[in-house]
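1st attempt posting a full record on here, be nice pls
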Amino acid sequence: MGKVAIIGATGNVGAFAAHAISEIPYVRKILLYGRKGRENLLSGLTNDLNDSFAASGNSMDIGWTTEIEDLKGFDIVVITAGNARVPGQDRLDLALGNTKIIAPLVQDIAAVSPSIKIFMVTNPVDVMTAVALRYSGLPPEQVFGLGTHLDSMRLKSLIAEYFKVHVSEVHTRIIGEHGMSMVPLWSATTIGGIQICNLPAFSSLPVDDIMKFVRDSGERIIKNKGSTVYGPGEAIAFLVRTILGEQNRILTVTAYIKREVHGIGDVCIGVPARINKNGVYPLTIKIDPEEITLFRTSVDKIKSITSEVFNEYEKFLKLQE
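the predicted structure (as tokens):
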């Protein structure tokens, strides 16, 4: 039975994630964390969630705090705090502003709870995971991000719809950036255990249209309703369930890789990883030559922006001295 903290709980994604996490049988306590000045909102949200638990017969222990010290002894902290993306804005445009929020936050978290797992949701998630890893000082297996998990699930659903099969029959992955340079692994995609390229219908699959739909999904939702909520919230809860339930699933999340993908690495980016209560462990994999080229391009993009963010943030820190 684990304890989960949510930082940024007063935002739409954090609030819904709290509700989704409350349904996990392996969780016994949820703590909603917010900055000082948000006490009324945190209290109201906690009361509202408690009412939903009363209505559903859920005995979850939920509380709120503005003190980072209260995270001591927690198993997982989900971080959704930060500036939200607006229509027309690339996720990477958010990087430096959110680094100024995340870097000091993870330093404090690691100081009070060194065994905690930091689960980054804040965008751009690949860069923010690198920020969390560097400034928390925690081992790589304890720091990971939502990455391309939801993107992979979106692709899985679209393939199932096209082939008119149950979604559980489809296994596929998207690796690389959670953004425009994401890479679908058609070489690792199967339907009913059959390699997708061995199915005659694959030749007519509108691959480019499907991937455009996946890439634009977040932007489209933000444009139409202001923010993405339910997809990320459920994806967050699924990963928390996987960790606390010691399920040893292989999911595609943002993690630090050394050289696991054809010697490409030294970056935090979306890759398949084995996930359990001890953390996140990227798999060594081989992919098709074209996928290698695309993945390398994605890695180079994330490495470049991560390096730029680190440099700019260090300059910012010096100006504060």
